[in-house]
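R.M. (postdoc): so does anyone remember the format we settled on? I'll just put the structure tokens first.
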């Protein structure tokens, strides 16, 4: 869910939601599957129903960077569908994923016809811009461990006190999400483990003490 905005279908009103899902199909992908590739034509928009999707960009030297993670209720691929340009990232399933697949032409028609849908899309864009600005501010204000704690809480979507498990992200992925190095992530995870806040496995992080993680995320 997009924090501060809510699931996209809930934001656009019943009539626009009905128009958006009419004729759309539900598709499921196993863990690690590519939903679409960077450079593909933007012929569809995905609405995540279950699971998480990571967006990965590849540099000319082959380096891959995780740009964002999308959770249930969020859109994937909507920007390319709006500006009709090739995909700027590859979408990869983190665990099993289910999405509502909406043709790009249908998505654009609904946004053009419904002021509620257009405003909802603007709210999504505004939230993501604020999120990006907030993360840039974190780099100067918080250490790597605090930034990692914040990303883990966001990814888990946990309410205070509720344990959760995050799967499908490597240490390199986490490093990209917090703007740090893989070595810094490994050190930060060790710090959080020693404090009893998390437990780690292969591409798996269990949040043991969410309240404690929230304190660490605040820089305490």
């Amino acid at each position: 869910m997009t924090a501060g905005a809510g699931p996209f279908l809930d934001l656009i009103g019943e009539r626009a939601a009905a128009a958006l899902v009419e004729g759309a199909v539900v598709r499921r992908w196993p863990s690690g599957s590519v939903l679409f590739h960077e450079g593909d034509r933007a012929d569809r928009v995905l609405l995540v129903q279950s699971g998480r999707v990571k967006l990965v960009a590849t540099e000319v030297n082959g380096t891959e960077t995780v740009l964002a993670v999308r959770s249930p209720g969020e859109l994937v691929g909507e920007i390319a569908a709006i500006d009709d340009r090739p995909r700027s990232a590859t979408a990869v399933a983190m665990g099993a994923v289910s999405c509502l697949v909406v043709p790009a032409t249908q998505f654009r028609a609904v946004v053009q016809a419904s002021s509620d849908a257009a405003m909802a899309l603007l709210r999504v864009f505004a939230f993501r811009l604020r999120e990006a600005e907030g993360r840039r501010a974190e780099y100067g204000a918080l250490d790597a461990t605090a930034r990692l704690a914040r990303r883990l809480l966001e990814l888990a979507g946990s309410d205070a006190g509720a344990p959760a498990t995050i799967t499908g992200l490597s240490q390199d992925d986490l490093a990209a999400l917090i703007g740090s190095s893989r070595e810094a992530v490994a050190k930060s995870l060790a710090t959080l483990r020693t404090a009893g806040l998390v437990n780690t496995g292969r591409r798996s992080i269990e949040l043991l003490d969410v309240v404690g993680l929230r304190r660490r995320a605040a820089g305490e």
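R.M.: ...and that's the designed sequence above, right after the tokens. Also worth knowing: The chain has two domains: 8-137, 143-217. The two ends are 27 Å apart (CA to CA).
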